[in-house]
Design a protein that fits this description.
The protein is mainly alpha-helical. It contains three helices and two strands. It has one domain.
């Protein structure tokens, strides 16, 4: 999925851009909240999922993208 164009040229594009901005802003907000607590200040940021590459550029660094994280975990469980 490509990053939505700004401004959107129609309703669908405008909604897609708003959803993208909301996800990026929400993730950044949560990261800042967690990092304000001493326990989480140095916790790594790991982004997974099919559209992770769209979110990573908008998050604080260091930020790690891990493709297929759930599937890798299931594989490890299955293999014992």
């Amino acid at each position: 999925t490509a990053e939505p164009r700004l401004p959107g040229k129609n309703t669908a594009e405008a909604i897609a851009a708003g959803v993208h901005a909301s996800l990026a802003g929400g993730a950044r907000f949560l990261i800042e909240r967690y990092r304000s607590q001493a326990t989480w200040r140095t916790a790594p940021i790991v982004v997974t999922g099919g559209d992770a590459e769209l979110l990573v550029p908008y998050l604080p660094t260091p930020c790690h993208q891990r493709d297929y994280l759930v599937l890798r975990g299931l594989y490890r469980l299955a293999m014992g």
